[in-house]
């Protein structure tokens, strides 16, 4: 069954009272650390927007970046309220009854005020974290940002203070009278898998696939 | 490079004017049809919320369902404005420079007024579509909803009228002076892969894995 975990505030309060606040935060961290992307929600002229983006977590802060021209970031420069949600689908649950089909998933939500990262030391931390988020260790393999590139990157931070998580790690939950039906039921695991890396056109053959990419393939 | 495609309204208008509106809609359909889940954004007391959910597309309508107790659906019963975003990550793009790391992705967004599906014929269409969304054909294998189950399901519809899509299907885009660096660069494809189905506890051995599940495994 789905479990709700939350750092209780008026916004994050859910139906079921959280009994393990620490576990809660662990789930939030784990989901953001594992997810390749997240979805950032914000409000412009009373309309909700939901935009996918790459992100990184450093301690109690989520970082992400994007084009300064985008609607999202223009809105955030004013310190907009955002919700950042990351979701991992772990399995499809096929029940005997159509009604009880569901998924195993882990979702984490952070509610907060977005701020633009101005401090140059924090900007470097954020850029490194975002580069390493998907390919840990990539920062030390790649050519580092020039001053011009650093200036061109608008970096956004959202504190992980108000948050909630929802996890379904259950099994098939059919009605008692359905268990004798001659219908297959079970759990189909799903995961994100890496394919064979395709070297860039013209890359020298002597340049081997680096550790960060090897590691990504090994764990995906 | 990312391409924006949009059905132009004040809300969906983006920097680049869409040149292929038909292609646009095809991308939106394809993304929603392929994605296992979407993220629904809505506004409650000026705060944005972003909730993951299973969905289905039937022609020009997106359907999804959930617990009537949830904040999302309570808000939507009043006919709330929502944004539904689905995102597929197709590859990690590792560049020579940290700054040019990115992803191949396809994202689709639908902006609209959510309505509760009341008509019993449309409810049946929506329930079938949602059941078949992840496992096509599953509806005809499963035990169909009882009147009580049907009544217990709150079904939401959002018209696909205002929409936009953003696609990056490009390659590594490093700075000209970086191409001679001895740093690996390339594209690492990623996809969602199905594992071996785990039959439910106590399922009779004679019950074989059904076509819908076989098909899902064959295509994931």
Mean pLDDT of chain A: 89
**Overall tally of domains of chain A:** 1
Of all chain pairs, the largest interface belongs to:
A-B, 92 and 93 residues
Beta-strand level of the residues of chain A, as a percent range?
A: 35-45%
Just give the CATH class of chain A.
Mainly Beta
**CATH structural fold name of chain A:** Pnp Oxidase, Chain A
Distance between the termini of chain A: 27 Å
CATH superfamily of chain A: Electron Transport, Fmn-binding Protein, Chain A
Instruction: Tell me the structural class of chain A.
Output: alpha+beta
Shape of chain A: globular
Rg from alpha-carbon coordinates of chain A: 21 Å
Secondary structure tally, helices of chain A:
5
Give a verbal description of the structure:
The structure is a homodimer of 220-residue chains. The radius of gyration of chain A is 21 Å and the shape is globular. In chain A, strands 1, 2, 3, 6, 7, 10 and 11 form a seven-stranded antiparallel sheet that branches. The first copy, chain A, has helices at 21-34, 71-77, 120-134, 147-152, 211-219; strands spanning 2-6, 38-44, 47-53, 55-58, 61-66, 81-94, 102-113, 115-116, 154-159, 162-168, 186-194, 198-199. Helix content of chain A is 23%, strand content 37%. The first copy, chain A, is built from five helices and twelve strands. In chain A, a hairpin with a 2-residue loop joins strand 4 and strand 5 (61-66). Chain A has a single domain, classed as Roll (Pnp Oxidase, Chain A). With 220 residues, chain A is an alpha+beta fold. The model of chain A is unreliable at 15-21 (pLDDT under 50). Chains A and B meet through strand 2, strand 3, strand 6, strand 7 and helix 3 of A and strand 2, strand 3, strand 6, strand 7 and helix 3 of B.
């Amino acid at each position: 069954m789905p479990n709700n975990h939350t750092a209780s505030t008026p916004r994050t309060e859910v139906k079921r009272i959280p009994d393990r606040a620490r576990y809660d935060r662990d789930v939030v961290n784990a989901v953001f650390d594992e997810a390749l992307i997240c979805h950032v929600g914000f409000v412009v002229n009373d309309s909700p927007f939901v935009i996918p983006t790459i992100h990184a977590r450093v301690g109690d802060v989520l970082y992400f970046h994007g084009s300064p021209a985008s609607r999202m970031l223009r809105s955030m420069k004013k310190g907009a309220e955002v919700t950042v949600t990351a979701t991992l689908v772990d399995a499809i649950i096929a029940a005997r009854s159509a009604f009880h089909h569901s998924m195993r998933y882990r979702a984490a939500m952070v509610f907060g005020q977005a701020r633009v990262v101005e401090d140059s030391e924090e900007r470097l931390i954020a850029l490194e974290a975002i580069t390493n988020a998907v390919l840990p260790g990539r920062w030390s393999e790649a050519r580092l940002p020039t001053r011009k590139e650093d200036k061109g990157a608008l970096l956004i931070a959202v504190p992980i203070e108000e948050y909630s998580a929802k996890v379904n790690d259950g099994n098939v939950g059919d009605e008692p009278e359905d268990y004798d039906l001659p219908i297959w039921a079970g759990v189909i695991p799903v995961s994100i898998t890496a394919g064979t890396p395709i070297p860039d056109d013209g890359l020298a053959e002597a340049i081997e696939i680096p550790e960060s990419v090897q590691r990504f393939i090994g764990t995906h």
